[in-house]
Amino acid sequence: MKPIFQKFTIAATGDFGEDRNEKRIQQWVELRGGTYSRNVTKEVTHLICSNDQFKKKAAPVQEALQIKGLHIVNFDWLEDSLSKNTVRSVKPYLFQDNVVVSRSAKQKKKTVRERQAYGIYRDSTGFAYDVLINRLDARTNTLESYRIKLFETHAEPHFYACYAVHNIPGVPRNVTQVLAPKSSLFELAIARFVGFFVEKTMVAWEERLDRIEASNPLAFEYMKPKLGPYGKLPGDEEEELLEKLKEESASREGRADEEAGPQNADGGRGDGEDTSKNNSHDGSVCVEEQSENGIMLEEGEIIETTENAE
Predict the structure, then answer these.
(1) Element (H, E) at 250
(2) What is the pLDDT of residues 183-228, one digit of tens each?
């Protein structure tokens, strides 16, 4: 990954939307070699600022205005730099007299559309994370299957999603289970992908190519690609990386549960908030609608599919 921000120290202030919070901005900056600062200091080279924060001259903005050479830019500068894989000139993105010189509405609409478009994730070997697992019912001689799919946005910064499409004999329409919702980070999505695979096959993901006879008749069998590639996560120590990602995901979820407070007797949160949208491996399901280009899970939302695992 090209370290395009290696010479920069970047800070942010304002609300840019749920999927572009400070934590994710920090991650994107640091993944590209930059330094992220939670405070505006003399070392900061760029302050990513919302229109609202600039107009009301919030404290970080006032501090930034006192530092010579510090650029106050809108979020489009960060997003366009990541998308183009090169640092963009700050001039079109600078705030000037309470106004930001921004892109046209047509350009913004195109960027949003690109950011929302997902395709099947492929690792460094070219393996598509669209796997098929089957289970034969000897009594009825019918085949039940799951197709587990890991998606990645086409545009950077990348977001991820993970779904399991369940084909049940005798049921005319497939049922899709949401394992990781749209806009998930990679570590959560890959942990849910691997976790579901292990749960259904009773075989460790790193042992998926070994012909292990399942002792449990309820276990599903992995149908590996006939010609490859067979898949490997970036790096040489796949098992260690997967374990690290799953531990990080579990730790983050544990902290979120503690912050949310205890559950009521009926299973709801103490504050009455419905958290079903955030539970990805708890049986959240939707009926799959087929479209020409893939799976449509919500009105207007199409996630592309491939026919990799047969």
Answers:
(1) helix 238-260
(2) 788 888 999 999 999 999 998 888 888 765 656 788 999 988 877 7
Query: Of 98, 99, 39, 101, whose CA–CA distance to 70 is shortest?
Result: 39
- Whole-angstrom CA distances from 137 to 2, 145, 148, 176, 219 are 50, 11, 20, 21, 11
Q: List all residues 6 or more positions away from 109 whose beta carbon is below 8 Å from its beta carbon.
A: none
Query: What torsion do the CA atoms of 79, 102, 86, 245 make, to the nearest 10 degrees?
Result: -10
As a whole number of Å, the CA-based R_g of the chain is: 23
> What mean pLDDT, rounded, does the chain reach?
75
Residue 38, classed as helix, strand or coil, is: coil
Query: Which long-range contacts (C-beta less than 8 Å, at least 24 apart) are formed by 120-124?
Result: 120/149, 120/150, 120/151, 120/152, 120/304, 120/305, 120/306, 120/308, 121/150, 121/151, 121/152, 121/160, 123/231, 123/232, 123/233, 123/234, 124/232, 124/233, 124/234
Residue 2: pLDDT band with limits 50, 70, 90: confident
Q: Which amino acid is at 76?
A: D
**Closest among 131, 120, 130, 148 to 223, alpha carbons compared:** 131
Which residue has tokens 């830019």? 73
Query: Is the dihedral angle over the CA atoms 245, 247, 248, 253 positive or is it negative?
Result: positive
- Alpha-carbon distance 103 to 81, whole Å? 14
Quick one: how far is CA 53 from the chain centroid? Answer: 27
pLDDT tens track for 256-280: 555 455 544 343 433 443 433 333 3
- First and final C-alpha spacing in the chain: 32
| Residue 309: CA count within 13 A, CB half-sphere | 23
Residue 141: predicted pLDDT: 87
* Max avg pLDDT among 17-31, 38-52, 82-96: 38-52
Q: Could you give phi then psi for residue 42, rounded to 5 degrees?
A: -65, -20
Considering the entire predicted model, what is its pTM?
A: 0.50
